[in-house]
Amino acid sequence: VLRYLVVAEPELGSRPTETKLVYLPFWRLSALLYSCDIGKRQRASESVSASGKIPLMGRGVFIWSTTSPSKLLGGRVVERHLADSATTALGVASLRLRGAIYPVEPFRQEHEGRGEVVAPTLDYEVVREALYRSAIEFGYSGDNIRLECQRADIVAERLSLLYYPFWVRRAAGSVAVWDAVSGEPEPLHESTAAPSVQSSPAFDELTLVELRCGGCQSPLAPGNRTVVYPCHECHTFWVAERDGLRPFEAHYARPLQRLDSGEEPIWLPFWRVECRLGYWEKTIRTVGELRSKLGIRPLPADVGAGADAGKLAYFVAAYGALRAPRLDHAARDLTRLQPELTVGEYQKGEEFRCFYAPSDAHELAYASWLQLIPGAIGKRLRSLRVQVGLTELWYLPFGAKGRELRSLTSGRRYERSAFRGVGH
Ligand SMILES: [Zn+2]
After folding, report:
1. d(CA 66, CA 166)
2. CB neighbours of 152 closer than 8 A, spacing ≥ 6?
3. Which residues surround ligand 1, an ion (CB under 5 A)?
4. Which of 152, 292, 310, 424 shows the greatest Cβ crowding within 10 Å of its Cβ?
5. Distance from chain centroid for Cα 284
6. Which pLDDT tens digit goes with each residue over 159-185?
7. Closest CA to 130 of 75, 85, 194, 73
8. What is the Cα–Cα distance from 75 to 175, expressed in whole angstroms?
9. Cα–Cα distance between 67 and 179 in angstroms, integer?
10. Which of 81, 79, 102 has its CA nearest to residue 25?
11. 414: which residues sit within 8 A by CB, 6+ positions away?
């Protein structure tokens, strides 16, 4: 768990007397939320209010309305905060807007000397569950708000701890608290019920992993959220784990088309997830069944479609372009095409890093298929079941020229700006 801290403002003249600087722990979840709504004439808005006893702080509200049967896939960044029970025990219920406003910095050892850093007491899994529920749960009420079907998934989650500074004065039998950034007195709540018993430590031991290829010893390019590191020298793949780097099996796909003159080769990573679909009393296991039973076929201009006997799979972008408000178009096109990939050789070219884990690819199963399945009949779409299987990382070749990226698998062209800012 990464730890961050908001710095106190000790220069404020109004520091109350006989107080101690105390950093109280809050949990923070950052993630991408994908949700799919199917139905008629509806208005949906996200509920950011506290549900039950969990103090929440939400950012971003989205509202839509539709007038005819339709399918809506929404994606956005969510950020949620949850006060640790060590914090609520002092009467501080939530961060409110503060968590979003003040700049945070990574927690460093020297911060320990400036004030009392209160250790969190909630169990990691309890926190994760509460934040998950709060981020996915939608509250709908009112006459004109009705949802017929909804499915929401969270991907690329990051759970971290945020320490916020307070001045605390403990006198006989009473506690007073001030916000140590704004200087405002903190309205205190009754401290909540006894926190759940801590069953496991909230922190792992910090381990440092040297980013050096285990094959050829070349340094690997560091990346804040990289999941799989390609070695740019010997073209092997590595994942960072507690006790060091572990080799990872990924493939470079053989291009089905040649590079045109003037095109630069680029490798983009995708997760390929073999799966089986259950849909409206049909079972779809092969590429042919996807075409005959669901009517999902390659577009006329596409080449490289796999044979009917091939195993069904869906594709999810592993590079960082997967961001609100859209799923990655290149991955969607591959799912429609169902290309038969074969292992090829690495050829010199820029390689994008891999930001998404296999678990993210699994979370996106429903969003990936719901956007492709034709029609918008709620009870049909609700019947979709996805069973995931073999999950592999494939680097697919693209040709880059000017403002365009061309898939050397399907021949399909993409505006290069769609891949901009993906931190590769
Ligand atoms: Zn290497």
Report:
1. 46
2. 33, 34, 35, 36, 136, 138
3. 213, 215-216, 218, 231, 233-234
4. 424
5. 28
6. 889 999 999 998 877 888 988 888 888
7. 85
8. 43
9. 47
10. 81
11. 329, 330, 404, 405, 406, 407
| Residue carrying structure tokens 């693209």 | 398
Which tokens hold the place of 5?
Answer: 């801290």
Compute the distance from residue 17 Cα to the ligand 1 centre, in Å. 59
Distance between Cα 237 and ligand 1 center (Å): 8
What is the amino acid identity at position 200?
A: S
Of 304, 400, 393, whose CA–CA distance to 349 is shortest?
400
CA of 345 to the centre of ligand 1 (A): 15
Q: How far is the CA of 224 from the centre of ligand 1 (A)?
A: 20
- How do residues 271-285 score in pLDDT, each as one tens digit? 999 999 999 899 999
C-beta neighbour count of 334 within 10 angstroms: 27
Which residue reads 């296991």 in tokens? 285
pTM, 2 dp? 0.67
Cα 290 from Cα 288, distance rounded (Å): 5
Residue 129 CA, ligand 1 centroid: distance in Å: 39
Cα-to-centroid distance, 245 and ligand 1 (Å): 12
Question: Residue 247 belongs to what H/E stretch?
Answer: strand 244-248
Span from the CA of 211 to the centroid of ligand 1 (angstroms) = 11
User: What whole-number distance in Å separates Cα of residue 155 and Cα of residue 161?
Assistant: 19
For the ranges 28-42, 56-70, 247-261, the lowest mean pLDDT is seen at: 56-70
